[in-house]
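cache lookup: miss for this entity combination. No prior model stored, computing from scratch. Input as submitted by user K.M.:
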Amino acid sequence: MDQRVSIITLGVSDLQKAKAFYDGLGWKEVEQTAGEEIIAYDLHAMTLTLYPWDKLAEDAGVSSERAGSSAITLAYNVSSESEVDETITHVKTLGATITKPPQKAFWGGYSACFQDLDGHIWEVACNPFSKLGPKGEFQWLGVNE
Amino acid sequence: MDQRVSIITLGVSDLQKAKAFYDGLGWKEVEQTAGEEIIAYDLHAMTLTLYPWDKLAEDAGVSSERAGSSAITLAYNVSSESEVDETITHVKTLGATITKPPQKAFWGGYSACFQDLDGHIWEVACNPFSKLGPKGEFQWLGVNE
């Protein structure tokens, strides 16, 4: 397997509510036929989709319980501490639960965490050791300049 | 928030075993100080990391139970049906659980699903409607040629 991920799919309990949350971030859905039971947002070289939790489990060949038994977080890196603060203030208005208010992180950055309407965990972080690329691309090695 | 994800972090119960699995896919870890409690793999414009489940929960400000209550799948798209078959045969040798054997999918492609050692669900798919980019980049709209 090459070193890549094509799609991140978040299992959701109410597709329209979940869509309203991600639209509320300023994200633009991929155009598609009305009535489709999946919502797609193209990111850098990959896609994030929202899909009903029970269908996700069925498609994967696992029970709903097993589908919801893994711990994953998604990180969104930004360029400044104030941008972390602003992002958290914004997602709160969309109904996110702030699980960790903005604070200095042990690894030297500044970060906060929230859960979206379905409990998916996001970290919003400013990492002074790893510059983002011109379009916000992130690499661990910090090679983006 | 811009339309992007910087890091996907998979909570794992045994960091070295999890690393052996992902190394076994042919993935190359980002070089780092020995003894660090996080394993990073740079992907396209983002990073996938492995991190102990309990620390992930602590960092996110949630209980381990809540950290492990969301359903997410990661998809890995390939260019041919035989590549789906080969990938599934390979991950099986690494200890993955095949939850859906390779088969025609309702949406017109060909796919299979497996869970890694910690239950994280991967779909391996050939999607004839969305060409991959030269480096395997995926976009829902299929604009990569």
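stored under new cache key. The first strand of chain B starts at residue 7 and ends at 12.
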